[in-house]
Design goal:
Layout (H helix, E strand, L loop, with lengths): L1 H56 L2 H8 L18
Length: 85
């Protein structure tokens, strides 16, 4: 019986140690995820600010791009391909 209880104690210690290791790994992964999320959100915010600033500087850029389009009626019609059989 003594061997069983000693083996059971060792098994319980290993299980506790394994749980602690998994807990540390989960917390490390969560910290890494939080750090990367914060970096991504910060980058998105700066990109949005830059886009807003550029849009404020050149408000006609979007409108002029739309004006350059040629209406479908004024476009050149496709060439007619005659097919012989």
């Amino acid at each position: 019986m003594r061997a069983l209880s000693a083996g059971g104690l060792k098994s319980a210690q290993e299980e506790t140690l394994a749980k602690e290791v998994r807990k540390k790994e989960r917390s490390a992964t969560a910290a890494k995820t939080a750090r990367l999320r914060a970096l991504r959100l910060a980058k998105e915010a700066t990109d949005k600010e830059e886009a807003d600033r550029l849009a404020a500087e050149k408000p006609d850029a979007v409108a002029s791009a739309r004006r350059k389009r040629v209406p479908a009626s004024a476009a050149k019609p496709a060439k007619l391909v005659r097919m012989t059989y």
